[in-house]
């Protein structure tokens, strides 16, 4: 049975002086995947853009391009989506219960379309590169002969235990080596640490952005805007597809997760990115996210 979610992602920018023009790229529309179907997405931009286009990128993500030519001192982007999500956790292939080295070697030696696609996620990317630093950290989770899923979930648990979740401790410009040295950051940092570890032992791993349905404190109502965008990683399992793992919450991805986009690392799929021309400063953007399971 599928769970139907309404996801609202609203981002507000304020500027000290007029901005003209501004150009933005948006990864805000959930994609269709095994176990996930996007029923509708509406993206509203204020002020009304002079140019709005949608396309599908190299990874199959839905991307919107926005251009605003008129002078403006604020920009608001609101994406509202209805998404069906099923829990596919029980559908992992038997490869997940095989030695991780067997999976690594299978990807290298097999020439099926899925395996060929997975190979690119073993390679270094703009933000995440394999290195002895990360292979050494991964080593205790990947002794010879350990089953793939056991090894990956153990690595996720160690990242969850060893790293402190601390909003503001890092920025988009913080390097992965700095994150590793500080042992603190946010979900995108923890996902990329996990990806670096998996690539360093030869396994395909990709970065996933999206949302997680959260619960309010016991006895209290869920507040509007209380959710946040989220990030996790997925590892390739031959004959089973990609299995999502969330180091921030130390769990496998389930039907409480909504996937927006995936790529090699964060730089491929930021929710909003762009260029603006102004002589004034921009305030820190205000982001409000609601993920609500709909009745029935």
Total count of domains: 2
Low-confidence stretches: none
Largest sheet: 5 strands, antiparallel
Kindly identify the CATH topology of the largest domain. Answer: C8orf32 fold
Distance between the termini: 10 Å
Structural class designation: alpha+beta
Instruction: Estimate the mean pLDDT confidence.
Output: 91
User: How do the helices and strands follow one another from N- to C-terminus?
Assistant: EEEEEEHHHHEHEHEEEEEEE
Structural notes for this entry:
There is one protein chain. The chain is of the alpha+beta class. The chain has two domains: 3-85 and 270-293, Immunoglobulin-like, CATH 2.60.40; 89-268, C8orf32 fold, CATH 3.10.620.30. The protein contains six helices and 15 strands. The strands form four sheets. Strands 12-11-10-9-13 form a five-stranded antiparallel beta sheet, with helices on one face. Strands 3-6-1-15 form a four-stranded antiparallel beta sheet, with no helix packed on it. The chain has a four-stranded antiparallel beta sheet with strand order 4-5-2-14, with no helix packed on it. Helix 5 (176-182) links the parallel strand 7 (164-165) and strand 8 (184-185). Helix 4 packs across helix 6. The longest helix has 15 residues, at 148-162. It is globular.
Compile the SSE list and pairings.
Layout: E1 3-19, E2 22-29, E3 36-46, E4 51-56, E5 62-68, E6 72-85, H1 100-109, H2 113-119, H3 132-138, H4 148-162, E7 164-165, H5 176-182, E8 184-185, H6 187-200, E9 205-212, E10 229-237, E11 241-246, E12 251-252, E13 257-263, E14 272-276, E15 286-293
Helix pairs in contact: 3-6, 4-6
């Amino acid at each position: 049975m599928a769970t139907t979610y309404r996801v609202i992602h609203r981002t507000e920018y304020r500027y000290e002086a007029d901005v003209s023009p501004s150009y933005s790229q948006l990864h805000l529309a959930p994609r269709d995947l095994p176990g996930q179907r996007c029923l509708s997405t509406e993206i509203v931009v204020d002020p009304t853009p002079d140019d709005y286009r949608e396309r599908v990128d190299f990874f199959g993500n839905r991307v919107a391009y926005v251009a605003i030519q008129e002078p403006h001192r604020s920009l608001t982007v609101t994406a509202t989506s209805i998404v069906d999500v099923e829990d596919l956790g029980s559908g992992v292939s038997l490869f997940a219960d095989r030695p991780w080295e067997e999976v690594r070697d299978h990807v290298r030696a097999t020439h099926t379309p899925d395996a060929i696609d997975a190979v690119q996620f073993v390679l270094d990317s703009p933000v995440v590169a394999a290195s002895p630093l990360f292979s050494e950290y991964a080593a205790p989770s990947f002794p010879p002969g350990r089953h793939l899923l056991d090894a990956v979930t153990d690595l996720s648990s160690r990242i969850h235990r060893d790293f402190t979740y601390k909003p503001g401790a890092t920025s988009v410009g913080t390097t992965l080596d700095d994150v590793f040295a500080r042992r603190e950051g946010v979900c995108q940092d923890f996902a990329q640490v996990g990806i670096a570890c998996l690539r360093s032992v030869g396994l395909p791993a990709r970065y996933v952005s999206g949302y997680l349905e959260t619960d309010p404190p016991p006895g209290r109502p869920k507040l509007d805007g209380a959710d946040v965008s989220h990030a996790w990683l997925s590892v390739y399992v031959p004959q089973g597809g990609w299995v999502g793992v969330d180091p921030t919450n130390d769990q496998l991805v389930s039907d409480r997760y909504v996937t927006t986009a995936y790529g090699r690392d964060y730089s491929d799929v930021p929710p909003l990115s762009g260029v603006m021309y102004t002589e004034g400063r921009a305030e820190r953007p205000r982001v409000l996210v609601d993920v609500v399971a709909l009745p029935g």
